């Protein structure tokens, strides 16, 4: 019973943060609140809808069973995936006494596992913005992507065949997300996959402990057992500035490395 409830809470948490996952922000923790603050589009992850839509439809189906059969049921506050999942938590005990209860519990576990794989798996492609090349029909608006791990210097637009320099696009994206706020895990993924810069969560935690970057608020996250915690968020521009400063200061680099060797998540 407790496991079924925990699965639903985790589905709700993952679904709540699905918009940021579409923006390719991933974490081993599922996020239960917050919103994206960057105005410039950051990399788009097209897998989210493919995973989330079937889960939403399935949860809605279980909700309809409650509406049809449960006595004195209450309506969910909203019909989005997260709201329906949270609403079903109150009916886990009711499902446990039904013949289809084991099917419901198994479906909720599969949904939770699917979302965990989605959030933990690195994205397949990195978004490089719109093409923008001048064509006979105006500026080309085709979205450009680069496969993760591909080191090619240019990307050809699939629509107009114009070649775009990857390094230039990374610089443009970097300039557009300087004020983006994220957790250490989120920013390390964004820095390494999108901007091609070396970063890992432990490094960012060491930056914070050393005073090189400052927290700009917290975000509530839930682990896979439904436990809640507050996680600091940092500005990506400050992280990049700290990295540039350390590159020119050996003493500071040594201090940060000592912190990294013994650091834990802040």
Could you walk me through the main structural features you see in this protein, from its secondary elements to its overall organization?
There is one protein chain. With 266 residues, the chain is an alpha+beta fold. Helices cover 50% and strands 14% of the residues. It contains 11 helices and 11 strands. The strands form 5 sheets. Strands 1-9-10 form a 3-stranded antiparallel sheet. Strands 2-5 form a two-stranded antiparallel sheet. Strands 3-4 form a two-stranded antiparallel ribbon. It starts with a helix and ends with a helix. Residues 21-44 have low confidence and may be disordered.
Short description:
The chain has 266 residues and is α+β, with helices and mostly antiparallel strands.
Mean pLDDT: 78
Lateral strand order in the biggest sheet = 1-9-10
Instruction: Work out the number of β strands.
Output: 11
Per DSSP, the total helix count is 11
Summary tags:
single chain, 266 residues, alpha+beta, 3-stranded antiparallel sheet, two-stranded antiparallel ribbon, 11 strands, flat
SSE topology:
Elements: H1 2-16, H2 18-22, E1 30-31, H3 47-69, H4 81-89, H5 92-96, H6 101-120, E2 125-130, E3 134-135, E4 138-139, E5 143-147, E6 154-156, E7 163-165, H7 166-176, E8 181-182, H8 184-193, H9 201-210, E9 218-222, E10 228-232, E11 234-235, H10 236-247, H11 250-262
Antiparallel strand pairs: 1-9, 2-5, 3-4, 6-7, 8-11, 9-10
Helix pairs in contact: 1-4, 1-6, 3-4, 3-6, 8-9, 9-11
